[in-house]
Amino acid sequence: MSPYVVLRVVSKLLIPLIFLFGFYVHFHGEYSPGGGFAAGVVVGVGVILYALIFGMEAARKAAPPYWARVGMALGALIFAGVGFVSLFMGGNYLDYTVLDPNHTYLGQHIGIVAVEFGVLVSVTAVIIAIFYGFAGRERTGDGAED
Amino acid sequence: MTGADITQYFDYLFMVMLLFIGLTIIRLQNLFAVVMLTGVYSLIAAAWFVSLGAADVAITEAAVGAGISTVLLLAAMLLTAGEAKPTSAFRHWAALVVMAAAGVAVFYALGDLPVYGAADTPANTGPGMAYIERTPDEINIPNVVTAVLASYRGFDTMGEVFVVFAAGVGVALLLNLSGRGRREEDGE
């Protein structure tokens, strides 16, 4: 646990806002700059900030490394899965228009948000996994407690 | 056109700042200061991208360059020494020769580039303009970058996600994700 009270209090205020901003960047990516890649990085930064301030043990409880490992593959699977769904619904691979045949644009919007969600999950998980990889080495290297 | 002129001066200002930060990074030996300055470099680069109108790139540069890489470089720095070993003068001169040759080549090629902000560049005609024209009819979202990234170029983006996935798996295999295996060994 970090002894710096100011850091702890400020980060407690900031971390929820960082997550909120990450999801805003993702779900608002059709209307403003942003998308899955940037949103995934922002969400990953939220977890990393939590780990830096509150220590690795607390971070491992909040975002287990198991999730990071599953998330890496899950995000890629979501993206490829949307392609297969559009394939089975009678369109080309990653052709989102068939996802909702009753509306002109809704299928495209659903498809874009869905594949971007796959990007978000994958990027977030990879960033957290890489950070855990480095931080885990640091921790076992000098054998010190957080 | 005065608005465009003002942002052009912002561009020059950012480029000068990037140049000075780059020179400072070269001269410094303290790795902590170098890592912090690379973060500052990325932040100013992000501000430059905003000034150039590439807001999507700017968000990613600010998050990845200033945020993630700084944290990862700091984490990597904890595993190594805090000071860089002084480099021999010969290597400095060799690097200078390579840089000068590359710089001369870039300036030689400069004449073939289109004028900054020109409307008839290959990027602004052809497929780029076609995407801008077709997005309102076919996808109907305001952000053309997202339309190209997720819909028109969905295959490319899927490949990018697989590259990110492969990078994550590679790092996890190399660095022993979460250090769990090492801790179990320590416990035995």
What does this entry look like structurally?
- The complex is a heterodimer of chains A (about 150) and B (about 190).
- By secondary structure, chain A is mainly α.
- Chain A contains five helices and no strands.
- Chain A has one domain (about 5-140).
- Chain B is built from eight helices and no strands.
- The interface between A and B is large, with 59 and 51 residues.
Short summary of the structure?
Chain A is an all-alpha fold and 146 residues long. Chain A has helices spanning 5-27, 36-54, 56-62, 65-88, 106-142. The longest helix of chain A has 37 residues, at 106-142.
Topology:
The complex is a heterodimer of chains A (146) and B (188).
Chain A: H1 5-27, H2 36-54, H3 56-62, H4 65-88, H5 106-142
Helix pairs in contact in A: 1-2, 2-3, 2-5, 4-5
Chain B: H1 2-27, H2 31-51, H3 55-77, H4 89-109, H5 126-138, H6 144-152, H7 154-175, H8 180-187
User: What's the alpha carbon Rg of chain B, rounded to whole Å?
Assistant: 22 Å
Measured by DSSP, the beta-strand proportion of chain A falls in under 5%
> What is the CA–CA distance across the termini of chain A?
6 Å
**Coarse shape of chain A:** elongated
Q: Could you list the spans of chain B in which at least 5 consecutive residues all have pLDDT below 50?
A: 181-188
Low-confidence stretches of chain A: 139-146
What is the number of independent domains of chain B? 2
| Total number of strands of chain B | 0
